[in-house]
Amino acid sequence: MKQIFVDVFSAEPWNDKWVDDAQVDSYLKDLTDYGNTLSFVLVDESDAVIGGALGYVTNWWEGREYYIKEFFVKESEQKQGLGSFFMKELSVHLKTLEIDYITLVTDYSVPAFSFYKKNGFKESTETAFMVRRIPD
């Protein structure tokens, strides 16, 4: 499986640069083992949870990334800079874990889109998020 994976994705049209054997092993393990989740909480002065970041870490040929599945701040605490503070602190912590990228998916039509752009996220021009309903 490993060699087929490398052969397929190193060729056109993907042209991935899977040259580090250890990195290939790590990535394939991520796809077959669920021990890569990483979650954070944001707490107030009384240690009450007011936000969270839920996701997982994957290894890629360009380095490690944290994929955020859910990022949230309690509605009553929003628009006070806490989300930006949380994202900044999260980024600092991820750097200590040698994580190079944060990735996520959001809708254009929700406020989170502007929030993420304000916090340094860029839209990918090379990736399409796709979905398909499984027929009944």
Automatic annotation (TrEMBL):
Keywords: Transferase. This is Aminoglycoside 6'-N-acetyltransferase I. CDD domains: NAT_SF. Pfam families: Acetyltransf_1 (PF00583). Residues 1-136 form the N-acetyltransferase domain. One of its GO terms (molecular function) is acyltransferase activity, transferring groups other than amino-acyl groups. It comes from Alkalibacterium thalassium.
